[in-house]
């Protein structure tokens, strides 16, 4: 039997609220220490892209952190039980992801795309892909070769088709003995320059790792490119019309190249050379 004690909304007597990309969220707890940890998670999850606002118990979106009677850490979302874990680190990592997803789903005036993003000569290169697709490793190798870091998780696009920085720590995975360990690495640790300006999207790579694969890109049309990006467009379910308009505007001046790839270390050099050749 679960040892989770249902927590009523009125039980949460400590809170702070913030706004990120137009999304307002309240973070609640009955424990000051947990609330402080939640604040650190928000900072890390959103890479500083938020501002504190006046507390409002009527906000549509909320997360609550507490402990069960057995000592497990418990996470609530919008007043409903979400998950619990006896271990703090995995639950806070999950909380981190849920904050990002909530903002990405309901961002005002922006579309979040699951994608790595770097800049080359002030122009955006996007690598759409889901988690565990290797995009963070490829982004890391690109910035080691001089690209400017924007994100290893999200391309943040506006209606003009510009990409905004979301420079969270890179999440790099180390597989050892069949077990995967996630390591968060700051851009500074890779010697990266971090982008600050909104920039046009000029190259989109539709790619995934295949052992021994050669880079033989197929150039896609605008319609084909939009179709490829739909699975990675987080706000599509909530605002399909706006999301598709933003995708069209973002891709309208971009080259969209599709091909499997090999090892990311060599591929990063190949792509930067390709970028120089095809983007003028």
Your description of this structure?
- Helices cover 28% and strands 32% of the residues.
- By secondary structure, it is α+β, with helices and mostly antiparallel strands.
- It has 2 domains: 9-106, no CATH class; 111-278, 3-Layer(aba) Sandwich (Rossmann fold).
- β12 and β13 form a beta hairpin.
- α1 (32-45) packs across α2 (88-106), α3 (135-144) packs across α6 and α4 packs across α5 (240-251).
- The N and C termini lie far apart (63 Å).
Give the tags.
Rossmann fold, alpha+beta, 6-stranded mixed sheet, 16 strands, 5-stranded mixed beta barrel, 6 helices, 280 residues
Quick description:
Helices cover 28% and strands 32% of the residues. With 280 residues, it is of the alpha+beta class.
